[in-house]
Specification:
Elements: H1 7-22, E1 32-37, E2 42-48, E3 53-59, E4 62-70, E5 76-82, E6 85-93, E7 99-106, E8 113-114, H2 127-134, H3 143-170, E9 193-199, H4 211-224, E10 228-233, H5 237-251, E11 256-262, E12 265-268, E13 271-274, H6 287-290, E14 292-293, H7 294-304, E15 308-314, E16 341-345, H8 362-371, H9 378-392, E17 400-403
Parallel strand pairs: 9-10, 9-11, 11-15, 15-16
Antiparallel strand pairs: 1-2, 2-3, 3-4, 4-5, 5-6, 6-7, 7-8, 12-13, 13-14, 16-17
């Protein structure tokens, strides 16, 4: 029996599994995971086999309303869904940067797609041929007239928006006002970026080789990518909590936020704690008072009300205090990402990550390289890091993410 599926079958699987989800034909099971929120009747995010994902509104377990679907190759559709199908205005973005904007009507799941671009619609004479060649259904005869009318309406709306934009640009800008709590502020790929980076290596009883190097290299990379960086090395509990407060203060001014921690991390009764270098833990209960609750960081970022946040935890190494405790789970526990955020773990929940033999830990080494690739959405960056780490560790370490991001974020702009 061969070790791997033939390329043709792999390509078929990469198409069929996302199609089953969008058609509403699949049941959440081994190939699908509800990553956060309500994936039946509400707002949530779902991750499928191979890395495809959907984040948005659900009804009866199907995509219904506003949402975004990302294929395994990084192609992304953001727009309106109805019964698991793309119906209405939307934007399709390819990994190479090509963008299609128009009105979509998936008459058979993600089968035949009828759309009209604002600038260059494909000749209708070619559409039946395209449908025939792909084995998919052709659009109804009246679709052209309907789409033409919709295109005209959208063009008029676009012209109106351009006029409004020109009028606003001619007005004097009002003084900046601080954001109200709970109101997201605009943050985009070229907007304000703030990062808190902590690396702890000098633990008295269980020192680590890589975290300070990881933090220094991460801080340098983020600075080169336009982030304001707060860096702390070998920090005690008071220093860590003070840095989080400073980070929170800057985030309240708006922009994208990023928190990175490398060092010892542990879970106690389902909660995750980041270990300062001055922690002396004799029992599990000590972690509540002598370590920093990872939930504190998530709470501060959510309270800041900025538009987008990333949390990266390279803190899933062996628990150095486990021998003296009655029961100790390995690695970190799974945390649900608050709205507009993504939490990235160096390895899967309840698993342990490698410290690394070189200058950096395995996960951070691969992440630093992937962040510098231009034009890669953050979800695709983490997917590529996962592939590289699994390859380097012979599948022993599997990085993991929990996400509820909306819109796109790039470390390095297209």
């Amino acid at each position: 029996m061969p070790n791997s599926l033939p390329p043709a079958r792999l390509r078929a699987l990469s198409l069929i599994l996302p199609l089953l989800f969008l058609c509403g034909c699949a049941v959440i099971g081994p190939t699908m995971t509800c990553a956060s929120g309500d994936c039946v009747n509400g707002q949530g995010s779902m991750v499928g086999f191979g890395g495809w994902s959907y984040a948005g509104e659900f009804q009866a377990g199907q995509a219904q309303g506003k949402g975004a679907f990302t294929w395994m190759d990084g192609t992304r559709f953001e727009g309106t869904f109805e019964g698991g199908r793309r119906v209405g205005p939307g934007v399709l973005t390819f990994p190479n940067g090509r963008v299609l904007r128009g009105v979509w009507n998936d008459v058979k799941g993600v089968g035949y797609q009828t759309y009209e671009e604002f600038s260059a619609a494909p000749p209708r004479a070619q559409q039946p041929a395209l449908a025939h060649n792909s084995g998919l259904a052709a659009p109804p005869e009246h679709a052209g007239a309907d789409l033409a009318a919709e295109r005209q309406r959208l063009a008029e709306e676009l012209a109106s928006l351009k006029r409004q934009k020109a009028e606003l640009a001619a007005r004097p800008s009002p003084p900046a006002q601080p954001g109200q709590p709970g109101q997201p502020k605009t943050s985009g790929p070229v907007g304000r970026r703030v990062a808190l980076v902590i690396g702890n290596s000098a633990y008295p009883t269980a020192p680590l080789k890589n975290p300070v190097n990881d933090a220094r290299d991460m801080a340098a990379t983020l600075k080169s990518l336009g982030f304001e960086v707060i860096l702390r090395e070998n920090a005690g509990l008071a220093q860590m909590e003070g840095a989080v407060d400073e980070f929170w203060g800057r985030l309240k001014k708006g922009g994208a936020g990023l928190f990175y921690f490398a060092g010892h991390g542990l879970q106690v009764q389902g909660k995750n704690y980041l270990v300062p270098v001055d922690a002396k833990l004799s029992a599990e209960q000590d972690a509540r008072y002598k370590c920093m609750d990872a939930g504190l960081v998530l709470g501060r970022m959510e309270d800041a009300g900025n538009g987008l946040n990333l949390v990266i935890l390279d803190a899933c190494r062996n628990n150095p205090f486990a021998r003296s405790w009655r029961s100790a789970a390995e690695g970190l526990a799974k945390m649900d990402a608050p709205r507009g955020s993504i939490i990235a773990y160096a390895t899967a929940p309840d698993s342990v990550a490698a410290d690394g033999q070189g200058r950096n830990g395995v996960y951070t080494e691969k992440l630093l390289r992937a962040m510098r690739q231009p034009g890669q959405p953050v979800e695709l960056v983490f997917k590529r890091v996962r592939d590289e780490v699994m390859r380097a560790t012979a599948d022993k370490q599997v990085p993991w993410e929990s996400t509820s991001l909306r819109g796109d974020f790039y470390f390095t702009n297209p």
